[in-house]
């Protein structure tokens, strides 16, 4: 049932593993130029950490710190000991680089294999990786995990739906890795091709890389005819494999033998109790080459209270609800794109894509939401479209407390990205002051 015994370790056993891992990580960090300065200024060493809670003795590490240390200011081993590096997508500001030793890559692959086993994939299954490879960690991270688990792994890469379909059919694929926006796009493609997803025989989809709502997950399951499992990872913590749902689909187990996770108040940094949403802070516990202490992920989530029905003892993270840095402020109201997605995906008339546009009008910030609607809805009589428009505006206003402009467009008219979906375009940055 379980990939390894640590998945059901007692809470006391996990605390002991984390304490040992924290001491080892602090000792390793002393070889890093950045942490040698920081820990030296604090006057702390490995001997000062006697429980996981002692992590609070340390200050946070931020993305800005990593940018200042770019490209190699955080390395704890000689350059010749590293065999891989990945670079963050750099959607805001300068990129960050993460280096891996051979041990780091092996440990990462083992964690991903554990994740895949938790959803139900097994040795001998055929697994198609429909994610981009290269500097993006999702491709190679999942690939190595699938091979470690013993799956026949098809490195299909991103896009090219006709080729994806041929591979799915020819090799009788059991599971896939796919980002949510492309999953919906691929479901539409299957419909256009007259393909019944049930005829493909696939059973599992691992989805991640983009925040998405529960309704989006259920829609993916509906259009693809399989079970879709949420995942969490970030380049700074290796990539995929940090936390993953099990078959219960009741939150993502964060692997506490490999990471020490905290939820803190984004403003004060104070720890928050289970059940309360805050910013996720992560510490690596087993990485040799480039460990990180108390890294602020900027992702907003919570620890789900209670035990999971699957029997695993590692705490569960709720799905990511937004980020501390993607909040939109319009007319004094704080809006997260995920709030808008939640409303849209609850409406059956909506197709697969939407775009939030920010612009200025009469020196005031405004928000417009372009929404693709299903073909049969778009072709309906004008009163039908007008009624849908009115309902959509009202529901969005009730959710975000601002009345957005809404534009209904034909399905497929918003360009689909092959990588992470672009959900927000800020045209205010292009307009003169």
Overall pLDDT confidence: 93
β-sheet strand percentage: 15-25%
Termini Cα gap: 61 Å
Order of neighbouring strands in the sheet with most strands: 4-3-5-6-7-8-9-14-13
Number of strands: 21
Number of helices: 11
The gross shape turns out to be: globular
Helix content: 25-40%
Key features of this structure:
433 residues; alpha/beta; Rossmann fold; GMP Synthetase, Chain A, domain 3; 2 domains; nine-stranded mixed β-sheet; four-stranded antiparallel β-sheet; 11 helices; 21 strands; 31% helix; globular
How would you characterize this protein structure?
This protein has 433 residues and is an alpha/beta fold. It has 11 helices and 21 strands. The protein has helices at 11-29, 33-42, 63-69, 102-119, 137-149, 161-170, 180-192, 214-224, 337-345, 375-378, 382-400, and strands at residues 82-87, 97-101, 126-129, 152-154, 175-177, 204-207, 227-234, 239-245, 252-254, 259-264, 278-284, 295-301, 303-304, 316-317, 322-323, 328-330, 333-335, 350-361, 364-373, 405-410, 424-426. Strand 6 (204-207), helix 8 (214-224) and strand 7 (227-234) form a beta-alpha-beta unit.
């Amino acid at each position: 049932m379980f990939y390894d015994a640590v998945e059901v370790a007692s809470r006391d056993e996990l605390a002991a593993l984390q304490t040992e891992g924290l001491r080892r990580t602090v000792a390793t960090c002393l070889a890093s130029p950045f942490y040698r300065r920081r820990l030296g200024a604090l006057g702390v060493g490995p001997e000062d950490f006697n429980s996981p809670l002692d992590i609070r003795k340390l200050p946070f590490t931020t993305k800005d710190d990593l940018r200042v240390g770019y490209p190699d200011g955080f390395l704890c081993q000689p350059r010749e000991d590293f065999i891989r590096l990945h670079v963050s997508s750099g959607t805001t500001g300068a990129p960050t680089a993460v280096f891996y030793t051979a041990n780091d890559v092996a440990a990462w692959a083992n964690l991903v294999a554990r994740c895949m086993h938790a959803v139900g994939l097994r040795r001998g299954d055929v697994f198609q990786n429909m994610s981009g490879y290269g500097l993006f960690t999702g491709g190679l991270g999942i690939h190595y995990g699938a091979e470690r688990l013993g799956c026949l792994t098809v490195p299909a890469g991103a896009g090219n739906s006709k080729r994806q379909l041929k591979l799915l059919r020819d090799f009788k694929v059991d599971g896939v890795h796919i980002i949510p926006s492309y999953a919906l796009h691929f479901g539409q493609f299957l419909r256009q091709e007259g393909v019944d997803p049930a005829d493909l025989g696939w059973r599992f989809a691992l989805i991640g890389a983009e925040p998405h709502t529960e309704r989006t997950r259920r829609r993916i399951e509906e259009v693809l005819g399989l079970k879709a499992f949420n995942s969490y990872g970030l380049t700074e913590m290796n990539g995929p494999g940090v936390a993953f749902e099990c078959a219960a689909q009741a939150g993502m187990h964060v692997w506490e033998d490999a990471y020490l996770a905290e939820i803190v108040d984004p403003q004060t940094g104070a720890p928050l109790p289970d059940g309360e949403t805050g910013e996720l802070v992560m510490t690596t516990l087993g990485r040799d080459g480039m460990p990180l202490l108390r890294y602020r992920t900027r992702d907003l989530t919570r620890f789900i209270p209670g035990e999971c029905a699957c029997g695993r003892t590692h705490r569960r993270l709720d799905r990511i609800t937004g980020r501390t840095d993607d909040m939109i402020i319009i007319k004094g109201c704080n809006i997260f794109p995920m709030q808008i997605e939640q409303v849209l995906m609850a409406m059956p008339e909506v197709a697969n894509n939407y775009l939030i546009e920010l612009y200025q009008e009469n020196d005031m910030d405004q928000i417009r939401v372009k929404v693709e609607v299903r073909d049969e809805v778009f072709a309906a009589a004008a009163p039908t479209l007008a009624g849908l428009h009115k309902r959509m505006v009202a529901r969005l206003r009730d959710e975000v407390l601002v009345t957005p402009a809404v534009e209904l467009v034909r399905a497929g008219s918003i360009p689909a990205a092959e990588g992470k979906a672009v959900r927000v375009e800020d045209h205010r940055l292009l307009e003169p002051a």
